[in-house]
Protein 1
Amino acid sequence: MRSGEDAADSASEDGRREGAVDASRARVLDETAMRLALDQAQNALLVGEVPVGAVVVRDTPAGRQVVATGYNRPITDHDPTAHAELVALRHAAHLLGNYRLPECELIVTLEPCAMCAMALLHARVKRVVYGARDPKTGAAGSVIDVFGEPRLNHHTRVQGGVLAAASAELLQRFFATRRDMARMRRAAARPADAGVAPDANVAIPTGEATELPPKA
Ligand SMILES: [Zn+2]
């Protein structure tokens, strides 16, 4: 027969194991949702928008349900608020018939900006998961921390860094291609300036979404 101490050790060991299983399951769910968000980011890329994608999910007795998806489309829609998060959030709120989504989580490939972060707080979204950090406009701690602001009365949980490399790579490829195209245009306009120095800076300049020239 096990002593009381042995039984307690065994119970706490079981608890730790269950905790680890839960954490591992949560990570798989986050990564699965992030892959859907990355697909959405690809859609943005295909139409010449900064590649950021988002999905809204919720857990139901039948399992996890994807409620809505969205990708960055401010240029396409002539709408400075059409960030991936807000496109997905509007769609989800419309489908669920409620302006508050306390049972929903939003997964987005890039750290939300202040506008999106506030909208997510207004919607009472339960949790936000993002991929890459945005050193230029990130409002989950990179530039400011809207989610961590104690004076705001609702606190959405935030998890960053999920499949961050894949999200960042998509953005870096987009901006590298855009720089190459700008260089080619300059070279075509001034054939004498053939030797333009390559720009090796590949920071993630996501705030540039609204700076893209209108499409011809
Ligand atoms: Zn935003």
Protein 2
Amino acid sequence: MITDILKGLAITLKYFFKPKATEEWPAKPHKVSPRFRGRHFLARYSGGQERCVACYLCQKVCPAKAILIESEERPDGTRFPTRYDIDMIRCIFCGFCEDACPEDAIILGNTLEFPTKSRAEMIYNKEMLLALAPEGFDGKQSPEKDSHAPHAYQKPQNNFEGKSCGPKVEKR
Ligand code: SF4
Ligand code: SF4
């Protein structure tokens, strides 16, 4: 009996000084894997030009039908999205859109927590997604260069903490 109590106390003592596995959430944010696929953002070229060329591949490949794109053509014949919505409630964060994008325009960042008070606020429009690109994010190529060449950006983008975007959303 006494031996069992002592054994138990020894185990308690052993773990008392070990690093704690418990995470102090929400006081401290969760640590996520570098491969974590969180909230999306839309990237720009270093010159500020939007990377998205409205090819619709991400919309087509999305298994959850979470992406809605509308587009127009510029006078020079290039296309751009006039609307780019992602319904974060529908999204299953599979990363297919990022994989399919030929321009590395849609990227899944590492933001895990983005609670809202309504379903409508979970629909991210183009302006919100562009604003979420991390500070200093650089597509590593100027738009003048071959936009299909591989660029230096590779996941992980560890330091990315998405800037907060306001609750203003457009309803579909
Ligand atoms: S991560 Fe997957 S489910 Fe979410 S928008 Fe992209 S393709 Fe669709
Ligand atoms: S985000 Fe990429 S895949 Fe989607 S429409 Fe734009 S260029 Fe095409």
